[in-house]
Amino acid sequence: MSEHLHTALRLAASGVPPLPLRKGKLPFGNCPACVRNACGGRPNMKAPGPCACPHPCHGWAAATTDPHVFNSGPWMAAWRHAAAVAYHPGGAGVTVVDLDNADAIAWARQTLPATRTVTTTRGEHWIYRGTMASSNAVRPGVDIKSLMQYARWLGPGVGATAPLPDAVRALAVKEPSTALRAPQALSVPLRGREGACRHRTPTYLDRGITMAVQQITAARSAIHATVYRTFLAVLSTHGRCGCLTDAHIGRLFTAAQAKGETARHCTDAWTNACTRLGL
After folding, report:
1. In the beta sheet, which residues pair with residue 146?
2. Max Cα-Cα span within the chain
3. Fewest Cβ atoms closer than 10 Å to its Cβ: which of 127, 137, 153, 238?
4. Could you write out the DSSP letters of every residue in 122-178?
5. Mind giving me the DSSP string for 202-227?
6. What is the pTM of this model?
């Protein structure tokens, strides 16, 4: 067993979804069946679709903790050729603040609360408990890696993992912005209140909620990310016309909590999706 595969199995056993990287710290390219999104996408990617490809395809979304995937031939072959190990921070329930240089590290020490840190080739990863939308170049030398992103695994780091602070969430809010950002103490989910309804019958909305619930229920890994993406998809279709009711949102939250999400995680995911869409 290669060292990288051994590390990946250990991460997966602890609930951290890993993926192999090839030379250049890049994910493996899509297999022939998935080239140019011929497979129709994958539920945990931006594009919808039923793809269940056993290869380590689809970039960051290849990260998994599923032992059946690890034991498949394509995955074993990929790990034999892997040059490094990465993981999906959002799937592990964390956010990585990637500090690329000494100036960025100095800024973080003056601005952000102390947390678990990992030394990197050029700087440090500061790891916080909680997820948010990923965003590159939020300030000089600083990237945020959480949902829909991967980070290199360079060891567990040192220090206690602090909760994700508002100071980090605020970094991803671009100015000027018309988006209304909900406070972290949000207890009631947001829903759209503007725009003309373009849904001809209630059946369209009910079917969409049913499909969203099925997508969350069927997730076998990266639950945090799947819930966020599903909420984002529902809001992008139904969030601006006021069709969503508390009953609809309650069905989504119930499905997410049945997969192990807490009420706070559900609220955070809903808030982040609303913020991203400007709702």
Report:
1. 148
2. 58
3. 137
4. SSEEEEEES--B-EEEEETTEEEEBBB--EE-----BSPPEEPPHHHHHHT--SS--
5. HHHHHHHHHHHHHHHHH--S-HHHHH
6. 0.62
